[in-house]
Amino acid sequence: MVRRARITPERAGLPSPSDRRRVVGLRRAEVAALAGISPGYYKRVERGVVGGISASVLAGLARALQLNDAERAYLADLVRGSSPSRLGHPAPPAHAVRPFVQELLAATSLPCCVLDDRLDVLAANDLARALYLPLYESADRPVNQARFTFYDAASRDYWSDWDAMADLAVSLLRGSSGRDPVDPGLAGLITELRAHSTDFRTRWAAYDVASDTAGVREINHPLVGHLTLETHSIPLPEDPGQRVLVHTPCPAAGATGQLALLASCGADLRAAGVPRPRGRHAPRGG
User: Which superkingdom (predicted)?
Assistant: First the structure.
């Protein structure tokens, strides 16, 4: 329903309607016609009755609803999740980071970390910890990027484009929920965020989906100021759900020198034995 409401007849290549429409976007019958299925079948699909749906029907729906790659994958995950063979959890998600990956992080001169499908930071090298300094001010471990974004008022200053980062966090969790709908930790996190954050709850209702954290990050760091970083995401196939995030500087924005300064600041803090601030930020109503 949410998706078809975003697509006008003109955008779908249909003739401009001459009558006054009572629905926003496409009607069910129009989506069904574009997908090559009956209106009754599409109505069942929209209600979540997707058991036994064929690949050709999925492709038709994705085409009719103009889904991107992440949204197509989410739709396929939902169908797989409805299969009786998927009623049991196939394997618990991995939360331990392999020693080899830990060594790789430590040997890298760029800020990098391991993120999972819940947006938990499972491991990070020293420069990534310095980069994520406001996230580590909470006593809770593992650090969670979604909780920081929606609960901690400092996130509004830390993320230069807070709305974009909030949208990304929700879209990633939506994609994760499709891939693993029976992960109790993920389900619990989403339930918690929906209960305590209006900003999260509103975005969750939009059903936007993302599958990758790659892109440009604009950060206002408390120690070195504004940083523009390119973020690269490297999946770890042996540990589904885990991926390495590597942040590289944008030379034109002067981020190379700022990362060097950040590395120096982090070393100074460690040498001085300055403890990280502790204490849980209470959930915000927004």
Answer: Bacteria
Say which residue, 244 or 250, is predicted with more confidence: 244
Query: In the structure encoding, which two tokens stand for residue 222, read together?
Result: 């408390």
User: Token pair of 110, please?
Assistant: 């760029």
Looking at the predicted structure, is the pLDDT value of residue 105 above 90?
yes
CB within 8 A of 95, min separation 6: which ones?
A: 116, 120, 122, 142
Give me the pLDDT at residue 82, please: 59
**pTM for this model (two decimals):** 0.78
Residue at 126: amino acid letter: D
Same domain, 12 and 119: no
If one counts the domains in the chain, the total is 2
Q: Are residues 140 and 49 located together in one domain of the fold?
A: no
- Tell me: do 176 and 256 sit in the same domain: yes
Confirm whether 277 is domain-assigned: no
Averaged pLDDT, 29-57: 81
Residue 280 lies in a domain: no
Among the residue ranges 47-51, 183-187, 188-192, 233-237, the one predicted with the least confidence is 47-51
Length of the chain: 286
**What are the tokens at 198?**
């209006």
| Residue 16 burial (10 A CB sphere; 0-12, 13-18, 19+) | exposed
Predicted confidence at residue 284, as pLDDT, reads 46
Statement: residue 274 has pLDDT above 60: no
Q: Let me know whether 49 and 174 are in one domain.
A: no
C-alpha atoms less than 13 angstroms from C-alpha of 121 in its C-beta half-sphere: 25
Look-up of token digits 């995401």: 233
**Residue 173 is assigned to a structural domain of this protein:** yes
> Distance (Å, rounded) from C-alpha 245 to C-alpha 217?
12
- Domain of residue 223: give its range: 99-272
